[in-house]
Amino acid sequence: VGGEESSVEMRYEDENIWLTQKMMAVLYDVSVSAINQHLKRIFDDGELIESSVIKKYLITAADGKNYNTNHYNLQAIIAVGFKVNNDRAVQFRKWAGQIVKDYTIQGWTMDVERLKKGTLFTDEYFDRQLENIREIRLSERKFYQKVTDLYATAFDYDKDSKTTRLFFQTVQNKMHYATHRHTAAELIVERADAS
């Protein structure tokens, strides 16, 4: 984590990132006491519950001895990033703000580079993503079914008419296009295997 001149070796466990106060100080280019003060204020204000964001890990210090040291999870790391006031923290807030903007406007955000590299992903992560995709597809089917049910209740509904067939084709194509930017016919052509 961090730039080349101030990189920090993070701990990744339980689908979370963990840093000590010293590591956060390097990451945000401030003193350990500043990190400590920010964390104290975060906990005192009730922004985070201390016991839910801290985990003890055994680390070997420069003196060769092992110490049980508090590590703070990503929630705490992010909260500290919004308290620190320097160029590094401003850079972090711009990055975080872009992610929030993407999520708010698009309804999702994606780290394309990390997906390409395949780093920091567990089987649980991919299982959750597949479950999310299944839920989205199920909701699309339900929406399409509601549209067709509404149309079928119209007083002049004739299931065999050309207008009805055209309506359902149009709705289906719009659903396909909204989902994957192709009409049903385009999708068939794109996925056809001539071999």
What does this structure look like?
By secondary structure, the protein is mainly α. It has 2 domains: 4-117, no CATH class; 123-191, no CATH class. It is built from 9 helices and 4 strands, in the order ββαααββαααααα. It has a two-stranded antiparallel sheet. The protein starts with 10 loop residues before the first strand and ends with a helix. The model has no long low-confidence stretch (mean pLDDT 84).
Characteristics:
two-stranded antiparallel ribbon, mainly alpha, DNA-binding protein, DNA binding, DNA-binding, Virulence_RhuM-like, 195 residues, 10% strand, single chain, 2 domains, two-stranded antiparallel sheet
List the helices and strands and how they pair.
Elements: E1 11-13, E2 16-18, H1 21-28, H2 32-44, H3 50-53, E3 54-60, E4 66-72, H4 74-81, H5 87-106, H6 112-117, H7 123-152, H8 162-180, H9 184-191
Antiparallel strand pairs: 1-2, 3-4
Helix pairs in contact: 1-2, 7-8
